Automatic annotation (TrEMBL):
SUPFAM superfamilies tied to this protein: L domain-like (SSF52058)
Domain of life (superkingdom): Eukaryota
Membrane topology label: Single-pass membrane protein
Lineage per the UniProt record: Eukaryota, Viridiplantae, Streptophyta, Embryophyta, Tracheophyta
Record's protein name: Leucine-rich repeat-containing N-terminal plant-type domain-containing protein
Gene Ontology cellular-component annotations: membrane
Biological source species: Arachis hypogaea
Keywords in alphabetical order: Glycoprotein, Leucine-rich repeat, Membrane, Receptor, Repeat, Signal, Transmembrane, Transmembrane helix
Localization annotation: Membrane
Chief site of localization: membrane
Length: 125
């Protein structure tokens, strides 16, 4: 299952060579076999949208997609990641609202507003 999710994510980013060349990704942290708890894809020259497949990594605690050229909005499906503690989307070209996460989550969200057009309505913390 986890392998299929990682493959979906790689395909959603257009199968960039830096991801496809390391099937088990050097930039993932797994616990107890196939449980992915962290993904760090910062500064990988990724373009396009944030893949919806990230929401299938139910045990994900840390997701770093900073320093890429991701566009559009943060997928609402990410709010289903109830173990997520850190989400770094800084230095991308994102837009839209960021207050999509349940207030009960103790989530540290990093978004660079200089490079994105994100709007917070204040209730995400």
């Amino acid at each position: 299952m986890v392998e299929m999710v990682l493959l979906d994510i790689t395909q959603a980013f257009g199968s960039p060579i830096q991801l496809a060349s390391s099937w088990r990704w050097n930039n993932t942290d797994c616990q107890q076999g196939n449980v992915v708890v962290a993904v760090n894809l910062s500064r990988q020259s990724l373009t396009g949208l944030i893949p919806l497949s990230f929401s299938n990594l139910r045990d994900l605690k840390n997701l770093n997609l900073s320093g890429n050229n991701l566009r559009d909005s943060i997928p609402k499906s990410l709010k289903t990641l109830l173990r997520l503690e850190s989400l770094d989307l800084s230095y991308n070209n994102l837009s839209g609202e960021v207050s999509i996460f349940p207030p009960k989550l103790k989530l540290n969200i990093t978004i660079s507003l200089e490079d994105s057009r994100c709007i917070s309505n204040g209730d995400m913390y």
